[in-house]
Amino acid sequence: MDALTRKSYEMRRDIIEMVHLSRAGHVGGDLSVVDILTTLYFGVMNVSPQQAKDPDRDRFLLSKGHCADALYCVLGEKGFFNKEEAIKTFSQYQSRYIGHPNMEVPGVEMNSGSLGHGLSVGVGMALAAKMDQRAYRTYVVLGDGEMAEGSNYEGMMAAGHYHLDNLCATVDLNRLQISGTTEQVMNSASLADKFRDFGWHVIVVQDGNNCGQLQAAYEQAATYKGKPTAIIANTVKGKGVSFMENQISWHHGVMTEEQYQQAVKEIEEVLQGE
Fold first, then answer.
1. Can you point out the beta strands (E) in 72-215?
2. Out of 139-153, 170-184, 206-220, least confident range
3. Could you read off the pLDDT of 52-63 as tens digits, one per residue?
4. Which CA distances in Å does 5 have to 1, 39, 118, 148?
5. What string of H, E and C letters represents the secondary structure of 16-71?
6. Cα angle 218-219-221, degrees, rounded to a multiple of 5
7. For the residues 34-54, what does the mean pLDDT come to?
8. Which of 43, 106, 194, 237 meets the CB 3.0–4.6 Å disulfide criterion with 174?
9. Which is nearest to 205 in space by CA: 196, 215, 194, 213?
10. Which of the four pLDDT bands, split at 50, 70 and 90, describes residue 181?
11. 131 contact partners, CB below 8 Å, separation of at least 6
12. How far is residue 84 from each of residues 7, 157, 194, 211, measured CA to CA in Å?
C-alpha cells in the first residue's frame, strides 16, 4: 500500500470515530471525498500550518461543506490543530468544529455549506492571484449534487473567460445525494462536456478513490496552460465500509454500536493487510 492510500484509510478510521462519537455528520460523502482531500493535502498542495498566512500558499475550498468531518480530520492530521479535539468535540455544544467548515477553524479559507458557492469564490481567488502576479493555485472540491446550482455555471463561464489556468475544480462524482440519485433528482450529465463547453480542460479520473490516479491528474492539471482544469472523479459513496457503499441511506446516518464495530473492523483489515 502506498503512503497516500494508507493515509486515506487512516483518515477513514478517524472519520468513523468522529461520526460515531458525535452521532452527526455526512459519513457517506466523507468516505467518497477523503481520498481527494488526502491526495491534495499530502501529495499536491503547497499548504501547512507554518505558512497559514503566506500570501503564496495554495487555496483550498470545500464547496460541498456538509463533508466538513473529512476536512477536519485531514486538517488535524496536517497539524493545523489538535485532531483528537476535533474528533471528540465535532458538532458538540460550543465546539468550533461545527457541521460545516468555518473560518474559526485554522486552515479553513471559506465558510461553506450553502451549496453552489465555492466555485465562484475560487474563481475570485484565482483571478486575484493573476492580478497580483502570485504563484498560488486554487483548488475547489464540489459534490455532483450541488452541480444543479446555477451559480456554478456562472463561475465556470467566468473561469473559462479569464483563462484561469491556476484554478482546479474537482467534482466528487458519487452519483448519490440526500433524496436519491443525481440522475433522478437533477440530471447534470455529462459534466465533462459542460465544463469543456465553458472553456475548461477536463480530466476524467476513472477511480476517484485511487490516490495514485488522483495525484497523476493533479500533476497534469498543474502543467496545463491557458485553461482552468476540471477533474471529474468517479467515486463511491461510503467507500471503504461495505454496508455503506452506494447506499443513499448513508448520506447522513447514525451507526449502531454493531455497525460502528463492523466499519472499524473493515478499515483496520485494509490497513493491516497491506
1. 138-143, 167-173, 176-177, 180-181, 201-205
2. 170-184
3. 999 999 999 999
4. 6, 9, 26, 31
5. HHHHHHHCCCCHHHHHHHHHHHHHHHHHHCCCCHHHCCCCCCCEEEECCHHHHHHH
6. 60
7. 97
8. 237
9. 213
10. confident
11. none
12. 16, 41, 41, 25
Three-state DSSP class for 201?
strand
Q: How far apart are CA 201 and CA 224, in angstroms?
A: 8
Give CA separation, 190 vs 30, 142, 201, in Å.
24, 15, 14
Round to whole Å and give the CA distance between 129 and 134: 5
Torsion of Cα atoms, 186 then 139 then 209 then 106, to 10°: -110
Distance CA 41, CA 210 (A): 15
Cell of 34: 477523503
Q: Over the chain, what is the mean pLDDT?
A: 96
| C-alpha cell belonging to residue 71 | 476536512
Rounded to an integer, the average pLDDT of 164-187 is 90
Cell 493487510 sits at which residue?
273
d(CA 215, CA 217): 5
180 Cβ contact partners less than 8 Å away, ≥ 6 residues apart: 248
User: 160 vs 82, 151, 153, 155, 248, CA distance in Å?
Assistant: 39, 14, 11, 9, 34
Q: Which three cell numbers stand for residue 97?
A: 468544529
